[in-house]
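How it folds
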Amino acid sequence: MKLYEALADELAELMASGVLRPGEKLPSVRQQQERRGVSPSTVFEAYYQLEARGLIESRPRSGYYVAARRFAATPEPEVSRPDAASTLVDVSELVFQVLETSRAPGNVPFGSAFPSPLLFPLDKLGRAVANSMRHIDPWSTVADLPPGNAELRRQIALRYQLDGVQVSPEDIVITNGALEALNLCLQAVTRPGDTVLVESPSFYAALQALERIGLKAVEVATHPREGIDLGALAAALEQHKPRACWLMTSFQNPLGSLMPPEKKQALVELLAAHDVPLIEDDVYGELYFGAQRPALAKRFDSKGIVMHCSSFSKCLAPGFRVGWAAAGRFARQVERLKLTTSLAAAMPSQLALAEYLGQGGYERHLRQLRSALAGQQQKMLAAIEAHFPSGTRVTQPQGGYFLWVVLPESVDALELHRQALAQGISIAPGPMFSAKRAFRNCIRLNYGHIWDERQAAAVATLGALARAAA
């Protein structure tokens, strides 16, 4: 056996035995070379062999990591099949009830919409706040009204360029988080009574936005791994003549689905043919576990119909409430709506983020965050596999921090939510994610909090409750 084959087999055995865990970083080539007394080419060849076998993956400027494994005992959910009828939305009361009971201090936050704040560089951000405020230009409080701080918009435009998308800083509007950006985009292209196409299941805040404006929702069949069904979408476009389409094309909440790039291109071409704007909700796009960031749907937009919205809340600065919209041909309408609703985003947050991004280090933070989330996902999947009832199905996303769990039909997610809260565990029940309150046997679980014995025990308790109801 050649040296690289022996090294590859040894590492594969460590992975099989659990010594090297999914999402964990392997020793660098230099470390292996020094410890094993072999040449760099031997280590590279061993790693190439493991990569070809699907056991490890390379991450740019970061190294090699143990690949996520598939969990055969908990298969993925099937494609959703809504009835494709339009309906006025009425979910807010249910959403508010669930969120209010889920925020209690001390609960295990599986129902939370946010990752752990301990995963973010809050000390560095704090220094950026202090430094930027010491050197603030007094006139910036006036000059940085919408579309927002010029340097921050320039930094965001540079991020778009890295993703292969040309967006002028002048076409970026800074907002109070991504949710405001999404709402402004929705208001720019719709009027009360209009119809909007959404995924099934759909992010509950999107449904609440439609409800608030008085819009009708059409839930479109969605694949748990590859996103919205384009055939069903084409039929809905013909039948309902919608004014907009609100989708998460990368790591959708709650499914975690990721549309392949060719499917995103086909999506944009389909919507362009009908002249229907796409509101692209992309708050999780930076939280990928693969080698590179997923392509944006906006990358394939040649007519200005894609209104791309994102923020720093999920990937860098929770609580700063800084998001943005790159709204294509609707940018000026969004800017004016911003001025007439909340006037401007907070100046200290904009200045601090502009300074932090200009210093470098953002990519290093993102690599650490992605690695932590990938490892936490694997631990939660393993715990679900061990404790949940037979017949459970669960998504296995390639990024983000949510799992969508489909339980046996006899399990009522709202009742499970109540029982779990009594045990100090919050979950997000499936009916929150549907205008028709469907998905009654489904729950969304957040793996974005640091895994410990308390989290492991909570999954075991949740599994026991589900088994008792199954």
